[in-house]
Amino acid sequence: MSISRKRLNSEESRSAALEAARMLLLAQGPQAVTLKAVAAKVGRTHANLLHHFGSAAGLQAELARSIADRVTGSIAEAVERARVGERDVREVVDGTFDAFDREGAGALAAWMILSGNRDALNPILDSIRALVSQLRVGHEEHHVPESTLWLVLAALGDSLLGEPITSSLGLQRDAARRIATEALRSEIAARHPRMA
Predict the structure, then answer these.
(1) Residues 44, 49, 53, CA angle at the centre, nearest 5°?
(2) Burial 6-31, CB ≥16 within 10 A → b, else e
(3) CA 177 to chain centre
(4) Contacts of 169 (CB under 8 A, 6+ apart)
(5) Cβ-based neighbour number of residue 103 at 10 Å
(6) Each residue of 48-103: pLDDT tens digit?
(7) pLDDT beneath 70: ranges in the chain
């Protein structure tokens, strides 16, 4: 089912294409995010998408940037609210895990790596770097890069293998999230007892 054909300005056309790409990613996986499929979904031509993104790799990189920017924004908000006691660290963990699982960033990142399109990961890495820089302001003594590293790797791994591994081990599906939450709480308590 395609979006009805109407006159869109350049930014609206790009936004519609990225939303269609995200819908394809979530419904059918990263291999479904092609210029042809996205063009059909938004009622545009292949040439129109080439004009906006340059190539399928360009579309995928913009999709990765879009997902990463949206998700890191919500994670930053959750971290700041947790720092002032308005939210629990579980929300930070859930936001990170959701980014890679429900938002499709894990499957997209893995597919890009396996298909040799490593440069398309740059938008995700740029967003993570920007998030860490933002979170470090006023909290330079915290180990934000290290915490971000292990949390992102755990979320990525869980998005790709969490279901079969937890099932085979007889664990609840949210076991990795629970373990990550406990680890983050312990890390905060050990490094900053006044915040625990």
Answers:
(1) 160
(2) eebeeeebbebbbbbbbebbeeeebe
(3) 16
(4) 175
(5) 22
(6) 888 889 988 888 888 888 888 888 887 888 788 877 777 788 988 998 898 888 88
(7) 1-8, 140-142, 192-196
